[in-house]
Specification:
The chain is an alpha/beta fold. Helix content is 56%, strand content 9%. The mean pLDDT is 87.
Length: 277
């Protein structure tokens, strides 16, 4: 009697398994192309695949009236920014301290500052931040037994802000002092050191270029002569990067004019290729 091949009860899974392998191979090829492009062009192949979250008309009006960066974006960029801000508000937990009620407007503006800083990135949700703690004024911190205007606490996955100082940061747009930008940049820095995705690798590469530039004697001499950046920037390399971000957003033309190469590294680090940056 001739041998008959008995159908296996799992044969029906074969097409699905082949499809899964095919999708995996396509995904890996795409990732290789994406990584090659980011390394070759010093920019990302894409930022957002889907843009579906929306802000209310009231929220958009509030941004337009109170957040100058939003008004610099074109219509397409505004939709992407609104999507990111809405997602940020949806996934972070905002907690008021010392009796402060965190209003929807406060959440909106804090989220807007955070999303502004990461607007050029693919990963923009601050993976090391789950909680936004908001105090009415400078608060006592047990991290170093001192009063702070803001801090990033990676152990608690918390970004802590004095609302009074945060509000001054985005209302006064030409003093190169912005608490929100400063603290969110600290969160980005640690994220880049702990991750190996494209955003993190690009960030770290440009950060190292900035640090290398600081070893240039001519640059060091110019920094001493001009005293462009405030003294606090030279506390350590992380504070320097946080202060650079403040200057980048608040006075980009002046920054570019005084230190063009450092400005360009900062612009590439943040992947900013829009508005007037």
């Amino acid at each position: 009697m001739p041998y008959q091949n008995t159908p296996n009860q799992y044969d029906w899974l074969a097409p699905y398994a082949l499809a899964a392998v095919g999708f995996w191979l396509l995904f890996m090829i795409f990732r290789l192309i994406e990584t090659w492009y980011a390394n070759k062009q010093n920019r990302l192949l894409y930022r957002d695949i889907l843009i579906f979250r929306k802000l209310s008309r009231k929220q958009k009006e509030h941004l337009s009236q109170n957040f100058s960066f939003y008004n610099q974006l074109d219509a397409k960029q505004k939709r992407r920014f609104e999507h990111r801000v809405a997602r940020f508000i949806g996934v972070k937990e905002f907690v008021g301290r010392e009796g402060l009620e965190v209003t929807q407007e406060m959440k909106l503006l804090i989220a807007a500052v955070g999303c502004m800083l990461t607007f050029g990135r693919k990963h923009y949700q601050y993976r090391l931040v789950d909680y936004i703690l908001v105090y009415p004024e400078p608060f006592y911190s047990h991290m170093n037994d001192a009063y702070h205007k803001g801090e990033f606490n990676p152990m608690q996955k918390a970004l802590v802000l004095s609302w009074k100082d945060f509000e001054q940061g985005y209302h006064i747009t030409d003093d190169n002092l912005n608490l929100g930008i400063h603290e969110f940049m600290h969160a980005l820095q640690l994220d880049a050191r702990q991750s190996n995705d494209i955003d993190a690798l690009r960030f770290e590469r440009q950060f190292q270029k900035i640090l290398h530039r600081l070893t240039d004697p001519s640059l060091k001499q110019r920094l001493d002569e001009v005293k462009y950046f405030r003294a606090y920037a030279f506390t350590n390399q992380y504070e320097f990067m946080a202060v650079l971000a403040e200057y980048f957003f608040e006075s980009p033309a002046d920054f570019r004019s005084n230190f063009p190469k450092v400005y360009e590294h900062t612009r590439t680090l943040l992947n900013f290729d829009f508005a007037h940056y």
